[in-house]
Specification:
Elements lengths: L14 H18 L8 H10 L11 H10 L6 H4 L13 H15 L4 H11 L1 H10 L1 H8 L5 H10 L15 H10 L11 E6 L1 H6 L2 H13 L2 E4 L9 H6 L2 H24 L4 E5 L2 H14 L3 H9 E3 H10 L16 E5 L2 H4 L6 H8 L3 E5 L16 H18 L3 E4 L2 H11 L6 H9 L7
Parallel strand pairs: 1-2, 1-3, 3-4, 5-6, 5-7
Helix pairs in contact: 1-2, 1-5, 2-3, 7-8, 12-22, 14-16, 15-16, 17-19, 19-22, 20-21
């Protein structure tokens, strides 16, 4: 038996070996039960084994093993809560990586339904879909705007994206177009001497939909002496394909980004500067920091991972640096109270709550909510997962309602859509709230 999670290992796609590892890990998880409250995978797993007379996990059926895999939405909180993770315990239990190994193996050994393949493509082809929908933004947004509408039900019946989900509207002008026009017009000016250099990785959500996050990130960075670069050739980070088990398509996207980002970092080094990759969405940041190294590897992937920062993480490094500082003159609009939702994929990066700390500097009083939205990448957008996702998200909604703050902030655009669905509150990305606190006006839509 191998306990490997190495995708280049000769037995990685061996289903018999995978089944043995699932049994080993399921037995350990059943004996621990620490994660009973984090997602439905664990209660399902525990119930299956509890129903076996001698509670022998090896007597689980393949279908039962697979159901546990299907219910894992890759929140990554196992890395925060599990005491047996690699590097920390001899059992080297890596539940999220095992679930992805299972998805990848099943993709090579079984045939998914036509609808499932269509859903995979619709959720994974973010650049193709984003380019088309941005060009047709007024028409597309009208069709997508109302959850449960006839157009949304048609989309659900054909490509499997839940008609109930709140989806961010598409921008008529893409973020890269705005950035290049602004640079050409000479409007990119630093508010103080240069303190850092950032290679922006806006992510597909900011590129095509939540472009305001990118606008405000650039303006806040420039106010604080951060030069912003946006190299040509960036594509989706590949997370949807990775989480679907499509390693081939994931690697294709990852390799493009690794080439572009590592080249930008080295170009800055040629100028005598250290460039950091600033990422505006938590899932994408996690992928660049961890999954590119694990599933592609090589010195360029390691360089990108080492230099990658969440957009707020970089600002807090300036604030706490020995020879750098953050502008803390917040003379704009600051809500008295803010509920900050900490996304799972940001918590799993183990960098602390940088966005919360950044918001605190503006003077707002923070209530922290760390319950999962159960969207996590694209799992919660699929129609077949909606009821399970909303069941998990109830704790998040209850905590936000209980805090009853003047404002709600959250780093993840997809999770923020879940917050809208569950609470009716519309969150801002923390960098947008910081921009308003500086008195920076929103870009006209």
């Amino acid at each position: 038996m191998t306990t490997t999670y190495d995708p280049f290992h000769p037995k990685y796609f061996d289903e018999a070996d995978l089944r043995e590892e699932l049994d080993r890990v399921y037995d350990l998880c059943h004996g621990c039960r620490l994660c009973f409250k984090f997602c439905t995978s664990f209660p399902t797993l525990f119930a299956f084994i509890d129903d076996i007379d001698d509670q022998d996990s090896s007597k689980m059926t393949a279908a039962q093993q697979d159901q546990v895999v299907d219910e894992c939405f890759q929140c990554k909180l196992c890395y925060v809560n599990c005491p047996y993770i690699p590097g920390q315990h001899e059992w080297e239990l890596d539940f999220p990586r095992l679930m992805m190994r299972a998805e990848q193996t099943f993709r090579t050994t079984s045939k998914a339904s036509v609808r499932s393949r269509l859903t995979d493509l619709a959720l994974g082809s973010t650049d193709r879909v984003g380019t088309l929908n941005s060009a047709l933004a007024p028409v597309v947004n009208k069709a997508l705007a109302r959850p449960g509408s006839a157009p949304r039900k048609l989309i659900e019946s054909t490509v499997g994206i839940s008609s109930q989900r709140v989806l961010a509207p598409y921008a008529k002008q893409r973020f890269t177009t705005w950035f290049k026009k602004r640079a050409a017009a000479g409007r990119a000016t630093l508010g103080r001497d240069q303190q850092a250099r950032a290679v922006l990785f806006p992510t597909c959500l900011v590129e095509y939909q939540a472009t305001g996050i990118g606008h405000d990130a650039v303006k806040v960075y420039e106010r604080n002496g951060v030069q912003c670069d946006l190299p040509d050739g960036e594509v989706c980070c590949g997370a949807p394909f990775l989480h679907q088990g499509d390693l081939k398509r994931f690697r294709r996207l990852a390799e493009k980004n690794i080439d572009v980002l590592s080249a930008a970092i080295r170009d800055a080094e040629a100028d005598g500067e250290v460039a950091l990759v600033a990422v505006c969405q938590p899932t994408c940041g996690y992928v660049l920091k961890h999954d590119y190294v694990d599933y592609v590897g090589g010195p360029d992937a390691e360089l990108v991972a080492e230099r990658t920062r969440d957009v707020a993480e970089l600002l807090m490094e300036l604030h706490r640096g020995d020879d750098t500082e953050l502008d803390t003159d917040f003379g704009g609009d600051v809500p008295a109270t803010t509920t900050y939702h900490a996304p799972c994929h940001l918590r799993a990066q183990n960098i602390g709550l940088k966005s919360r700390d950044l918001l605190k500097l503006t003077g707002t009083k923070i209530s922290l909510v760390a319950e999962c939205s159960a969207i996590d990448g694209t799992w919660g957008l699929r129609a077949e997962n909606l009821s399970l996702s909303r069941k998990v998200a109830k704790k998040m909604a209850t905590a936000i309602d209980k805090a009853d703050s003047e404002a709600v902030a959250g780093d993840c655009t997809l999770a923020n859509g879940g917050i809208v669905l569950e609470t009716g509150r519309t969150p801002q990305h923390p960098i947008q709230q910081v921009a308003r606190a500086y008195g920076i006006a929103e870009e006209p839509s």
